[in-house]
DNA sequence: TTAATATCACGCAGAATGAGGGATATAGAA
DNA sequence: TTCTATATCCCTCATTCTGCGTGATATTAA
């Protein structure tokens, strides 16, 4: 079994060093390179192609979110792990959206760090249950929707790019009824086109 | 501090009983009612309005996914916890999408059960890192997209319901260029309308 | 030096859109 | 009981949008 190649992007020297020590002390991982900022790491990422990149979110210059985005773009197979002090912030969530596979808090101990890396390696996603909740909340629907059930049905089809005609066919109603629902949706959401309706619906998790 | 009201929907009598014992033994939760199937529980849910509903996924009659959907519809504040034997199945994932806030595996011990309920109570989402990964994968973009970056930009706007004209305006290109990109997208995705493109894009996480 | 990307152009027939004006029936709330 | 919300259906109008066909050019990456 080969050891997994890891890079560390972290501006605090002490942390960089202690992470390196911990990881190199394990028999499953080794640190290929450490960087105090993201720019240099990203420049080399196509060559280094590490298995895992540990990325601090608070970096000088390019921030960690953008760094993760670019790493995933240039080396999609590299798993990114967020390293952060803020355990339950929106930043972590943004990082996950940008492509990170999990996160480690900065004051994690030896065991926690290695276990997080192991989980990432075998396809898991280490994260606290608070973050997990934020994540799943993202595809829960808003129970306080102003729309009626039927209007919600229609809106879903609008969001799929369906035309009036297609909506009427799929819901077994006349085209006029579909248009009527859509007009009511526009009034309720205070918009006046399909695209605006979709943006608003997504923003408010109406669908 | 009031104890949180819990209902249990579980067809296996022994499990129902042991969950009840464990929960009633805690000082934070109490079991209001247990049900061997979802139908009865849902009929009463508007009246019982429990803080937490523990829902088995494999139920006779209505399955757990549908049960969760209906519970969240009729009593949105009730937190649903999936109870399952299959730790890492797609079913759990579907349950989370339907509105569950986390899950408990059936052979969890006393401590694990109480801890999961506590996490749910304080807004967390108990789940294994494998499930967490499935969940976050859902808003990661597919790195093997056949589309070029520009085409992806265009597709995103299509998915927002934007017209050719609007797309051209937002991307500062001519309408003809937008149409050109869209035509190329259709060829690559093997579709021939915006709505088909959107479905395919969502299915394959292209956007 | 090909292939892919990104940009731009024109014409056409038919469909879709948003805005305006209506109607009817049911069910539930005030 | 009257009002409101919901869900269904109908018509017209001017404008825009769509998909298809058939091109072109410049840059860049393999």
Automatic annotation (TrEMBL), chains A, B:
Ranges of residues in domain HTH luxR-type: 140-205
Alphabetized SMART domains for the sequence: HTH_LUXR, REC
Pfam families for the chain: GerE, Response_reg
Record-level Gene Ontology MF annotations: DNA binding
PROSITE patterns, A to Z: HTH_LUXR_2, RESPONSE_REGULATORY
Protein's GO biological process: phosphorelay signal transduction system; regulation of DNA-templated transcription
InterPro entries in alphabetical order: CheY-like_superfamily, NreC/VraR/RcsB-like_REC, Sig_transdc_resp-reg_C-effctor, Sig_transdc_resp-reg_receiver, Tscrpt_reg_LuxR_C, WalR-like
Residues forming coiled coils: none
Keywords attached to this entry: DNA-binding, Phosphoprotein, Transcription, Transcription regulation
UniProt xrefs under Gene3D superfamilies: 3.40.50.2300
Modified residues (4-aspartylphosphate): 56
Residues annotated as domain Response regulatory: 5-121
SUPFAM superfamilies linked: C-terminal effector domain of the bipartite response regulators, CheY-like
Superkingdom per UniProt: Bacteria
PANTHER family for the chain: NITRATE_NITRITE RESPONSE REGULATOR PROTEIN NARP, TWO-COMPONENT RESPONSE REGULATOR
Entry protein name: Response regulator transcription factor
Species annotation: Marivirga aurantiaca
């Amino acid at each position: 079994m080969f050891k997994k190649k890891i890079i560390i992007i972290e501006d605090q020297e002490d942390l960089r060093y202690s992470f390196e020590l911990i990881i190199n002390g394990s028999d499953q991982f080794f640190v290929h390179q450490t960087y105090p900022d993201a720019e240099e790491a990203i420049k080399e990422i196509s060559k280094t192609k590490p298995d895992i990149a540990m990325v601090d979110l608070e970096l000088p210059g390019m921030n960690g979110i953008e760094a993760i985005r670019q790493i995933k773009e240039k080396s999609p197979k590299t798993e990114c792990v967020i390293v952060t002090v803020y355990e339950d912030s929106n930043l972590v969530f943004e990082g996950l959206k940008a492509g990170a596979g999990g996160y480690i808090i900065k004051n994690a101990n030896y065991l926690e760090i290695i276990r997080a890396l192991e989980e990432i390696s075998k396809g898991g996603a280490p994260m606290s249950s608070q973050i997990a909740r934020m994540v799943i909340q993202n595809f829960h629907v808003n129970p306080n929707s102003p729309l009626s059930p039927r209007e919600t049905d229609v809106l879903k089809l609008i969001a799929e790019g369906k035309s009036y005609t297609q909506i009427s066919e799929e819901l077994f109603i006349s085209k006029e009824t579909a248009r009527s629902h859509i007009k009511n949706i526009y009034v309720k959401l205070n918009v006046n086109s399909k695209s605006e309706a979709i943006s608003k619906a997504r923003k408010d998790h109406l669908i």
